[in-house]
Design goal:
Elements (H helix, E strand, L loop, with lengths): L7 E5 L5 E5 L2 E2 L13 H12 L11 H13 L3 H9 L9 E2 L4 H22 L6 E2 L8 H12 L3 H14 L2 H9 L4 H7 L2 H10 L3 H24 L5
Parallel strand pairs: 4-5
Antiparallel strand pairs: 1-2, 2-3
Length: about 240
């Protein structure tokens, strides 16, 4: 799509939310819903992405706009479904599935995952089952309910980045730690890639795998930034 506007600005709506205007017209989501942003920091970031476009609009370069649109068009209209989707990762959290070998890999997982799993148990006030290998393990109903409650207490604007981090890492434990600011996105990403890093050390890194890794890490960092902007922690 060619750029169809000249001036980009940020304004405040009557309800205290913020909006982005293109040539004086309020920006809508791709689903044609009014885009009302919760913080000035986020509005400035979205406006900056639109202002930075050249003659052709490149949606791939507008990560903050993409997250905002996801909240507006997907999260808010079907919040209960999204909460359930995210919370479902708690039932098969990566950090509760150790490898069954080799010993060096298992030792790395234990050393780097145990403290985050322990923190999650303290936060959720419930114990988590841990297994080795690919054998399925079902978390207790109390644990599943605690995971859902932890997700459900978050606002819509935090759910979109949480969904991204949970999906990429396969761990709601890590995603909640990132959401709380206890863990950085890059560190969480590396923690979720212990097995892949171990295999790369042994057999070498595939170029396509490395490209994919970089892309996923960029998504993680964008999710972290969006979460910070929603919280008013401009970076």
């Amino acid at each position: 799509m060619k750029r169809f506007y000249k001036a980009v600005a940020v304004g405040e709506s009557d309800d205290g939310s913020f909006l982005v205007t293109l040539d004086g017209r309020s920006l809508n989501s791709p689903g044609k819903r009014p885009l009302r942003l919760p913080t000035r920091d986020l509005a400035d970031a979205v406006a900056g992405e639109w202002d930075a476009q050249g003659e052709t609009i490149d949606p791939a370069s507008m990560a903050m706009m993409s997250f905002a649109a996801t909240v507006t068009d997907r999260v808010t209209p079907q919040r209960d479904h999204v909460v359930g989707e995210i919370a479902g990762f708690g039932g098969s959290d990566l950090l509760c599935f150790l490898a069954d070998g080799p010993e060096e890999l298992v030792a790395r997982q234990v050393a780097q995952w145990s403290s985050w799993r322990d923190r999650a148990e303290q936060r959720l006030e419930v114990g988590l089952g841990v297994t080795a290998g690919v054998m399925p393990i079902r978390q207790s109903e109390a644990a599943l309910a605690a995971f859902r409650a932890a997700v459900d207490r978050l606002g819509d604007w935090h759910l979109a980045p949480l969904h991204t981090v949970t999906s990429i890492t396969g761990s709601l434990i890590l995603a909640l730690a990132v959401q709380d600011g206890d863990l950085g996105a890059e560190e969480a990403f590396e923690l979720s890639r212990i097995d892949e890093a171990f295999q790369a050390e042994k057999w070498g890194q595939d170029h396509e795998a490395e490209q994919r890794r970089r892309g996923l890490l960029a998504e993680m960092k964008a999710a972290e930034r969006f979460n910070d902007l929603v919280s008013g922690e401009n970076s």
